[in-house]
Design a protein that fits this description.
By secondary structure, this protein is an all-alpha fold. Helix content is about 80%, strand content about 0%. The chain has one domain: Growth Hormone, Chain: A. The two termini are about 40 Å apart.
Length: about 425
């Protein structure tokens, strides 16, 4: 019996929709994804730069180069996702990420660090993003915001735990032990569920998104009852690129993701430079991750009521406020409050933005469309850490970069208010 046959048999016996099993696999992959996240890497900034004498700019550049690699490969991976589904993409990403992170424990040069971390970071920014969101989009339509928010919550759980795992391991064996602990966690959590239980789409098991069943000849008269609860648009990549909505969502992406990546990587280092102890700095990273996950879950519940445009605009305002707050931190309480505001902003963005792409353009060519958008996203992410590192080395602190980030957050809120759902494409039959 094939793996797909076993999944079909399991889907028939389960008292609930198999999409929730797929979502559980996505959650495991989302936790594994954060091994090379900037929030995790932030715990390694001080010990590695102190030991090797690297500048913050040089260290941050690995994030940027990995992002550029993801930008170059994402359009191709997105097209592959539409043809083959998320399972193969996620399995390859988990294996290569775990292996390269384990090898980071033996790094002795900046070149070696770049060669290994850039591969892991490319996986984080490209294949993991496309695979996890592609799976959610294929299996859910009406419940897409909730499913997306659950996957976001799982990723934030990973972002909460990974820095703590790294910090604990570093206390007992230094930063090299920290990388070993992260690599083992990535492989242990991510591989087996994805390999065994992930299925491309509900139609492969005789189901429809959100748990519907295709109509049979005996039930042809009630076919409408078996359709997905929400009518979906169906855009090709070329059709999506011709809409204002695509470019406004891209502009929003271009504005918010330098802030996300730049603040995440340098958050702990900035707080310690402001006189906050290392343990409080790590706790702030944890606060950010936990708040982001909880807010993302709340967005998943209310997003259908408030609309994605309002959700995106609110998140942009929160991102502006977080940048201003973290720039003025002088106490542990202020550090945690600023981290909480940052988490509030990113929780909204991580839920609302993927839902917007899928709701506006549909499942048909989600991978191809998302691949182009992701190239824009990871390019923006690549610029943030580098900007923070350059301005910090130039001015001696992070005040200038945080002022830039506050401006970008405000502009993103304005861009979100201009977004409107695109009109369905006109096609000639036959």
């Amino acid at each position: 019996m094939t793996r797909l046959s076993l999944a079909a048999s399991l889907a028939q016996r389960l008292p609930f929709y198999y999409g929730w099993v797929v979502l559980a696999c996505v959650c495991c992959a989302a936790i594994a994804r954060v091994g090379p996240a900037v929030a995790t890497l932030s715990i390694f900034v001080t010990p590695m730069t102190d030991e090797f004498g690297w500048s913050r700019t040089a260290f941050s550049g690995a994030v940027s180069v990995g992002g550029v690699l993801a930008a170059l490969t994402s359009p191709m991976i997105g097209t592959f996702l539409d043809r083959k589904g998320p399972r193969t993409i996620l399995l390859a990403a988990i294996l290569t990420t775990g292996a390269t992170i384990l090898m980071l424990s033996g790094v002795e040069s900046l070149l070696g660090f770049y060669l290994l971390f850039c591969i892991a970071r490319m996986n984080f920014a490209g294949p993991f993003d496309l695979g996890t969101h592609g799976a959610v989009v294929n299996w859910f339509v009406a419940r897409r915001p909730l499913a997306t928010s659950i996957a976001t919550l799982a990723q934030m759980v990973g972002l909460t735990l990974m820095p703590l795992i790294a910090y604990w391991a570093m206390l007992h064996g230094g930063w090299r032990t920290g990388w070993i602990a992260i690599g083992v966690t990535v492989l242990a959590v991510g591989f087996l569920p994805t390999w065994a239980l992930m299925v491309r789409r509900p139609e492969d098991l005789g189901l429809l998104p959100d748990g519907g069943a295709p109509p049979t000849s005996a039930a042809a008269g009630s076919a409408a009852a078996h359709r997905p609860p929400v009518e979906e648009p169906s855009f090709t990549r070329a059709e999506a690129l011709a809409t204002p909505a695509f470019w406004l969502l891209s502009l929003y992406t271009l504005l918010v993701y330098p802030v996300q990546a730049g603040m995440s990587l340098h958050q702990a280092a900035h707080l310690m430079e402001r006189g906050v102890g290392a343990s409080v700095a790590v706790s702030s990273v944890t606060m950010f991750s936990a708040t982001s996950g909880l807010v993302g879950l709340a967005f998943g519940i209310i997003l259908r009521r408030i609309g994605v445009r309002v959700g995106l605009a609110f998140s942009g305002v929160a991102l502006c406020a977080a940048s201003l707050l973290i720039a003025r931190v002088t106490s542990p309480f202020e550090a945690l409050a600023a981290a909480g505001m940052f988490g509030l902003a990113m929780g909204g963005i991580h839920t609302a933005l993927p839902v917007a792409w899928a709701d506006y353009f549909g499942r048909r060519s989600f991978g191809a469309i998302r691949g182009v958008a992701l190239a824009i996203q990871v390019t923006a992410q690549a610029s943030g850490p580098l900007l923070s590192g350059v301005l910090r080395d130039w001015t001696g602190d992070y005040a200038a970069s945080l002022a830039v980030f506050a401006t970008l957050g405000g502009l993103a809120a304005l861009a979100a208010l201009l977004i409107k759902a695109p009109r369905p494409p006109k096609r000639q039959d036959g």
